[in-house]
């Protein structure tokens, strides 16, 4: 059976990033960490540093690769967290912004490691495709962190 996994190129900090990510979601875990060999020459003195961290986050397989500065993370790629309720949005939002992250728009943020996340309610698809989808979209465009109540009011036409 073929399965899809995600590999993300980082410039250092992958062990710290992985520890944060698995701490945020129940059932997540670090599976394996590989290291650059101590006896080999690598650019930027990578010997002994973590090369990859394999983990599961919310049931999804993710590998963090410490590949150096050649390919920086951008908002062109994000991980989407579909969550139940405003309290869970708030918890994850605050935890991922802690230590130097930055807010973006429409439920997007960039954490302190440079990885982009979208934190959305599980009902987002329904809200965005219902009869008042235009009002929901207009409300969403005014938000950094998603306000579920506001989107539900827009969807209800109130």
From TrEMBL:
A Pfam family that the UniProt record links to this protein: 3-dmu-9_3-mt
UniProt cross-references to CDD domains, sorted A to Z: PhnB_like
Record GO terms (molecular function): methyltransferase activity
UniProt entry keywords in alphabetical sequence: Methyltransferase, Transferase, Ubiquinone
PhnB-like domain ranges (all copies): 4-120
Superkingdom: Bacteria
Gene Ontology biological process terms in this record: methylation
Name of the molecule in the record: Glyoxalase superfamily enzyme, possibly 3-demethylubiquinone-9 3-methyltransferase
């Amino acid at each position: 059976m073929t399965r899809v996994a995600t590999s993300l190129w980082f410039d250092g900090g992958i062990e710290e990033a992985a520890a944060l990510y698995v701490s945020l979601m129940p059932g997540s875990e670090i599976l394996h960490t590989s290291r650059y060999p101590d006896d080999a020459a690598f650019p930027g003195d990578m010997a002994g540093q973590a090369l990859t961290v394999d983990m599961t986050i919310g049931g999804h397989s993710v590998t963090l690769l410490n590949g150096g500065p050649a390919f920086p993370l951008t908002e062109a790629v994000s991980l989407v967290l579909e969550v139940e309720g405003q309290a869970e949005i708030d918890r994850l939002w605050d935890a991922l912004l802690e230590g130097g992250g930055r807010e973006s728009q429409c439920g997007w943020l960039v954490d302190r490691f440079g990885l982009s996340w979208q934190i959305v309610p599980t009902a987002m698809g329904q809200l965005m495709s219902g009869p008042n989808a235009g009002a929901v979209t207009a409300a969403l465009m005014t938000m950094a962190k998603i306000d579920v109540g506001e989107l539900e009011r827009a969807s209800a036409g109130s």
